[in-house]
Write a structure and sequence with these properties.
Layout lengths: L6 H26 L7 H19 L2 H25 L4 H24 L17 H4 L8 H4 L3 H19 L1 H11 L1 H6 L4 H27 L11 H11 L4 H21 L4 E2 H23 L6 H23 L4 E2 L3 H5 L1 H13 L18
Antiparallel strand pairs: 1-2
Helix pairs in contact: 1-7, 1-10, 1-11, 1-12, 2-3, 2-4, 2-10, 2-11, 3-4, 3-10, 7-8, 8-10, 11-12, 11-16, 12-16, 13-14
């Protein structure tokens, strides 16, 4: 157990949550304005490929980062044009962009680098720096803290900045207004579609930064489909966080922790006592959720909890009988790699009904004449 719960797990959580936070913040600007942004996955890939390619030729991570922002903003503008001006279905348009950027980077990589699988390796000195690299000599006795990427610090600053913008500025008030009641906002003189364009383009720029972190911060090259579902996980975090900046960041940290735990558990024997308790708790939560959602127990909270407890105890006894006499067990890698996605499904299934989306989310607006 001590091999798993270490300080390295905490910093791995921060490192893996950083692209989720950036993408989720981007989705927040778009969805608060009333435009569903399913395209976060494609925007991450656009930013990641652009950052890796430009950094390779320009030999500067900051130029690559700026190019990733521009690429994400341009792709998001295409999404905004289709959804706002031509009133295309927002989910279908976003899905189309995701599908496009599964294959387009491979085609461009083949044309630029004669390799469709990945871009060339970028030298270490051309990658986004850590705090110690940016500020040499800063807190030399706390190296584990200064090895955090500057992008993780930027993500935290952007969360606080977004909270301030959303609740303390006229732009934030207008953004929330057009997402809740565009007719009333229009009557008050707010340009609904203009605010939505700004929200979606900001969404693309932030997701582009998240993609840049994947290819020139966390890694040193772009590989095909390197987002690996992070755009969808960021969308789940946005829903779990109820479209609020700080809560969304905490949800991203939860998913980052699940991802970090996946890495930490591989090849590490797990105590059978811990495994039994974990399975019992998981079964309890699943059974309680099913009983609560289906309401076949007449919504009696006590009966729901008791039935879940009984089933979890039975499963605990089964697991105990199977693992009796064994001190440690190594979990198969395939099951470990499922953890982040299982957590995402459980969160969406359990909390999506309790989150109230912006009222006009997904509804195109046409000004009355």
């Amino acid at each position: 157990m001590r091999q798993i719960l270490t300080l390295a797990l905490v910093f791995s959580t921060i490192r893996l949550a950083t692209p989720l936070v950036l993408a989720a913040l981007g989705g927040l600007y778009s969805e608060r304005s009333g435009v569903i942004n399913i395209a976060l996955e494609g925007l991450l890939l656009a930013g990641a490929f652009t950052a890796a390619s430009v950094t390779y030729y320009a030999h500067s991570p900051w130029v690559g980062l700026g190019a990733a922002m521009i690429a994400g903003a341009l792709v998001a503008y295409i999404l905004a044009l289709a959804c706002i001006r031509f009133r295309a279905d927002q989910v279908v348009t976003g899905t189309g962009i995701n599908i496009l950027f599964i294959g387009l980077p491979a085609v461009l990589s083949g044309a630029l680098f004669l390799s469709s699988g990945s871009t060339p390796q970028i030298p270490k000195e051309n990658l986004l720096p850590t705090l110690s690299g940016l500020l040499p000599g800063f807190m030399p006795h706390w190296r584990i803290l200064t090895e955090v990427s500057v992008m993780s610090l930027l993500a935290l600053i952007l969360v606080l900045f977004t909270r301030y913008v959303l609740y303390r500025t006229p732009f934030g008030l207008r953004l929330r207004a057009v997402g809740e009641n565009p007719e009333a906002a229009d009557a008050a003189g707010v340009g609904v579609n203009r605010i939505r364009y700004v929200g979606v383009v900001l969404s693309g720029a932030l997701a582009g930064i998240g993609g840049a972190y994947l290819s020139i911060g966390q890694s040193s090259l772009f590989t095909r489909n390197m987002a690996a579902g992070r755009g969808f996980i960021a969308l789940a975090a946005l829903i779990f966080g109820k479209w609020r900046p700080v809560q969304t960041m905490l949800a991203c940290l939860l998913f980052g922790f699940a991802d970090a735990l996946t890495i930490q558990l591989q090849g590490v024997p797990v105590s059978t006592v811990f495994l039994r308790i974990a399975i019992a708790v998981l079964i309890f939560l699943v059974i309680w959720f099913i009983a609560h959602q289906l309401s076949f127990l007449n919504r009696s909270r006590i009966i729901e909890l008791v039935s879940a407890a009984v089933v979890s105890v039975i499963m605990w006894r089964v697991v105990y009988a199977v693992t009796r006499g064994t001190q440690n067990v190594e979990i198969p890698v395939q099951f470990i790699q499922m953890i982040p996605y299982v957590v995402t499904i459980v969160v969406l299934a359990g909390f999506i009904g309790q989150s109230r989306a912006p009222r006009a989310l997904g509804t195109p607006y046409q000004k009355e004449r």
